[in-house]
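>> received
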Amino acid sequence: FFFFFFFQAEDGIRDVERSRGLGDVYKRQVYKNGGKSLSSIFCSSSCTCKGDPAKFSDYTGLNMETNSGSSTVSSCSPNPVAGRKKAVLSFLGWLEEKKDCSGICNKEKFYYFSDVNRGVPPKACRQPVLDYINSIFASNRRMV
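>> returned
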């Protein structure tokens, strides 16, 4: 007896990219716009930044002006993060502002959701996010 089994993958299954966790989701849903990264849109000819170019001396080719432009990525026109969940964008702004970080797995070159003129972020937000999540679980354990 010979048995032959044929499996047909449903549309899209072959093309699904394997998720690498929170950072992957964050980048795909927030830091990308139509396949372009926010770092290639913000402070470029697509969206001039309002900031001090001296704070970004390590980066070349930035389109940045001291008196005009956008201070956050959501103030660009057109807005590259339009349609994203406001709660997520608010959380990212809070992280950047309160924890002094930008990006999850890798440090980004700008603050996208708080004022870009703060300069280059010193670190990625991975550890502050983990600390925040752990604090939520710790407070929930105390309530039980």
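>> Residues 44 and 63 are 5 Å apart (CA to CA).
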